[in-house]
Write a structure and sequence with these properties.
Elements: H1 4-13, H2 42-51, H3 64-67
Length: about 70
């Protein structure tokens, strides 16, 4: 708990999507995308997720009911 900044730093230091941590898959718990996604701006995260078959709600958030793991 309370270590989100550590996780964010580790993902930011990753070599990227190709061979690195697939950090584009990390979204907020409500399905919102990162506003300043590091690999090409905020729209790049959505493009990468759509290529993987992730579905989105009309308001632009990931459809968490369809795409999340059960906890």
């Amino acid at each position: 708990p309370r270590k989100a900044r550590y996780v964010g730093f580790a993902m930011h230091q990753s070599p990227g999507v190709a061979g690195g941590v697939p950090c584009h898959r990390v979204v907020f718990k409500d399905g919102s995308l990162a506003p300043g996604f590091a690999f090409g701006g905020p729209d790049a995260q959505r493009v990468l997720l759509e290529k993987e078959g992730i579905t989105f709600l009309p308001d632009g958030r990931v459809d968490m009911k369809a795409c999340s793991w059960e906890v």
